[in-house]
Amino acid sequence: MDIAILGGGHGCHAAAADLTEQGHRIRFWRRDHAAVASLRAAGGIVLKDAAGTRRVPIDRVCEDIADAVRGAELVLLPTPATAQRDIATLMAPHLTDGQVVFLAPGSFGAYLMAQWVREAGSGARVAWAETGTLPYLARLHGPNEVNVTIRAVRLPAGVYPLCDAERAIAVIQRAYPCVHPCGDALSGALMNAGPIIHPPLVVMNAAPLQHHARWDIHSEGTQPAVRAVTDRLDGERIAIREALGYSAPHYPLADHYSSDRWMYGDAHRKLQKSGDWREHIDLIQHRYVTEDIELGLSLLASVARWAQVDAPITHGLLAVAGGWLGRDLRAGPRSFEALGLSQMSRAAMSELLFSGLHR
Asked: Is 216 contained in some domain?
């Protein structure tokens, strides 16, 4: 299958190498022209995982996003949610009917990117899907070298519009057989693990993160008090899902720490052992803040308000992070209030998510 991969981070490199090894034809685009030239000169991506180390040649490394998107059956974005609007604008003229765009994860980006593409003038009928986490626990070890600690074994995905779900899921499963449907785009957004796992770790480790040059929030930073807050936060997420009628499995984050039933299977010990997450985390600019708190946690809090579900941990973490950022994060750019959705009835929301706008 022809797959476009858009972006230049850890997950993008992991996906390009992994999906190439599966036999797919990859068009790998990133906006950094020097990095594109470097990857071409290197002759591919060095992939490191349990099977060893090898160089994987990539079929097409693209400077122009049009070269990547045109003709691709699946467009994959393992990119931060903060990059979605720019990518939507750049890709809009090149999308065609029948394509599937897969956000891994999305932070309700499946809904938003569809709107941004329309605003940019595209009339293509595209299915948008988002899942709960990256398909890989991965970290770059160099400009063209990626280490994959573990691959996801279960990836719940929501689709916008939901009426296109059967086709979209079938396409995505050709790349990721572990993908399974979980309903509409809001359900997919409420599977996002980032706004659950990272805000307690960042907020409750703020002092050591600012004191130490590198700190592993998943090892030293994951202590019983932090876990207790994470479990309560995740309980609020699940309560919101249940209040909105979304069915199990909800993938409780506790399974990530104590069983093999989570999206990555039994992964936490491997994550800790790798040492790849001993890093510098800037409390202003790191994606755990700009993506998982400012966008993802703000979205979760707003959905709790809309669904009338009590969520004190969600709002408390949001307030503390807003304290050091100096602004009220309840008005985050992906809150239902900011998106103009907070006054919508549940029936109208269901219809919107099923049929999409301008259908």
From this structure: yes
Strand residues in the chain grouped as ranges (E): 2-6, 25-29, 45-49, 52-56, 60-62, 74-77, 100-103, 127-131, 136-142, 145-151, 155-160, 179-184, 215-216, 278-279
206/160 same-domain check? no
Which three-class secondary structure string do you get for 65-110? HHHHHCCCCEEEECCCHHHHHHHHHHHHHHCCCCCEEEECCCCCHH
**For residue range 19-55, what is the model confidence (pLDDT) as tens digits?**
999 999 999 999 999 999 999 999 999 999 999 999 9
Q: What is the pLDDT of residues 188-199, one digit of tens each?
A: 999 999 999 999
The C-alpha angle with vertex 173 and arms to 26 and 151, in degrees rounded to 5, equals 75
Residues 214 and 137 in one domain: no
* pLDDT the model gives residue 359: 42
What confidence tier does 61 reach under pLDDT thresholds 50, 70, 90? very high
d(CA 42, CA 196): 37
Residue 186: how many CB atoms within 10 A of its CB? 27
Same domain flag for 170 and 219:
no
64 vs 80: CA distance, rounded Å: 20
**CATH code for the domain of 95:** 3.40.50.720
The answer to whether 121 and 93 are in contact (CB under 8 A) is yes
Tell whether 209 and 79 lie within a shared domain: no
266: in domain? no
Residue 99 is assigned to a structural domain of this protein: yes
Distance between CA atoms of 341 and 346, rounded to whole angstroms?
Answer: 10
Asked if residue 273 is part of any domain, the answer here is no
Q: How far is CA 316 from CA 162, 225, 286, 300, in A?
A: 33, 15, 20, 12
The range of the structural domain enclosing residue 168 comes to 2-189
**Is 172 found in the same domain as 109?**
yes
